[in-house]
From TrEMBL:
Organism of origin: Pistacia atlantica
UniProt protein name: Uncharacterized protein
Taxon lineage: Eukaryota, Viridiplantae, Streptophyta, Embryophyta, Tracheophyta
Length: 254
């Protein structure tokens, strides 16, 4: 029993480290695209297309503008990824033991939601700095000067001011992503490869994981995109409350 628990803890630790490294490095690599996305969300009139946003930022702020907020993405999403994947596996085991296999989709949903609650608590301070740094060039250069500046102006509350909208963005994403991933894996093994995971080679297992992960990320991102617009607007004080920002972003979408 004790040995089994040690193995479980080791497995959760590996999942957390894997999630931390994969999420941190992936978000770091896509920092330039994230800079374009955030600026287009916050300043839709000035930046009405990817091309105009790219050329205007390059002209006004130089090439370094596309790497603004890189530290917030690397460390913030690294911590979030560690909590998201490590805690997801922990909660999946916990809820599966309690509920059994009677409703696997429900287990996936509640496990991912539980993990994401804690993951966003870890991410929120980094996201608060990252979005401001990307959309407000004069706010701060990065985490080192952004954290004390935000703390001095808004206190601890400033780091978690928009935690609920962040949950509103990431909870649906995580729930849809993990559920899509799990069902995609089952579908690929059962209907495409027609073998169990144990019968497949490491290359086949990796291929299944990559395909399922791509599908999960694409579907999850599509679901969470409207809420992502709202979070960017709130962090940059485009509106002072969720009730005000909802109609603004609704008309931007239209």
């Amino acid at each position: 029993m004790v040995e089994g628990r040690k193995k479980e803890k080791g497995y959760y630790g590996v999942c957390a480290i894997g999630g931390m490294l994969s999420s941190g490095t992936t978000h770091l690599a896509f920092t330039p695209l994230d800079v374009l996305k955030v600026n287009m969300q916050v300043h839709p009139v000035k930046y009405n297309s990817i091309a105009s946003c790219f050329t205007t930022l390059l002209k006004e702020q130089g090439p370094s503008a596309f790497w603004r907020g890189w530290a917030g993405k690397f460390f913030g999403y690294g911590v979030q990824g560690g909590c998201r994947f490590g805690l997801y596996e922990y909660f999946k085991t916990l809820y599966s033991n309690i509920l059994g296999d009677c409703n696997r989709s429900f287990v996936f949903f509640v496990s991912s939601a539980s993990a994401e609650v804690f993951a966003n608590l870890a991410l929120c301070p980094f996201e608060a700095i990252k979005v401001r740094v990307q959309a407000q060039p004069h706010f701060a250069k990065g985490l080192a000067d952004g954290f004390p500046k935000l703390y001095a102006s808004e206190g601890v509350f400033g780091f978690y001011r928009w935690l609920v909208p962040l949950w509103g963005r990431n909870l649906p994403f995580s729930m849809v992503m993990f559920s899509t991933f799990e069902h995609s894996v089952d579908f690929l093994y059962g209907n495409v490869i027609r073998k169990t995971k144990a019968e497949c080679s490491k290359t086949q297992q990796l291929g299944v994981t990559c395909l399922a992960g791509y599908a999960a990320g694409a579907v999850g991102s599509f679901i969470s995109n409207p809420a992502d617009n709202i979070v960017s607007s709130l962090y940059n004080k485009k509106a002072d409350s969720l009730l005000l920002v909802l109609p603004l972003d609704y008309f931007n979408i239209l």
